[in-house]
Amino acid sequence: MKKGTKPYSIFKLKCPRCHEGDLFVNNRLFAFSQLLVMPDRCANCKQDYYIEPGFYSAALWISYPIELLLIIPTIFSGLIMDNSHQVFQILFPALVVLLFALQVPIMRISRAILLNITVAYDKTLSQ
Ligand SMILES: [Zn+2]
């Protein structure tokens, strides 16, 4: 991903304004602790990450359609496919576990998308 683009900031979980500072204290996509803990401001450009009270409740409206896009095909594949087939008996539970594992990255990416909608990139701030 090219720095200076929205996908770079979203999937690398970087500040939407400078693309340098981390959005989360634990900035890996798959985190097991401090899942949604964010610093108050960007360490590089001092962009405020808490723009207004309850700002990130709007991220639920971003994660919800993403979840639906993943869960609905999984449910229908479970209903349509032949349950007696051995590959399906292994694949379907693995798919369900994968969907649960994707909850944390989807929540983090949703917050990054919301911030990128709200804050524009300023290339004079990046190094
Ligand atoms: Zn920044």
Question: Number of DSSP strands?
Answer: 0
Helix content: 40-55%
Percent strand equals under 5%
The arrangement of helices and strands along the chain is HHHH
Q: Tally the helices: what do you get?
A: 4
Give the low-confidence spans: none
Principal-axis shape: elongated
State Rg. Answer: 18 Å
Can you list the ligands bound to this structure? zinc ion
State the secondary-structure class.
mainly alpha
Would you tell me the overall average pLDDT?
90
Number of domains: 1
Distance between the termini: 17 Å
Q: Biggest sheet: strands, sense, closure?
A: none
Explain what this protein looks like in three dimensions.
This protein is mainly α. The chain has one domain. The chain is 46% helix and 0% strand. The radius of gyration is 18 Å and the shape is elongated. The model has no long low-confidence stretch (mean pLDDT 90). The structure holds zinc ion (ZN).
Topology:
Layout: H1 6-11, H2 60-80, H3 86-101, H4 103-118
Helix pairs in contact: 2-3, 2-4
Residues 15, 17-18, 20-21, 42, 44-45, 47 line the site of zinc ion (ZN).
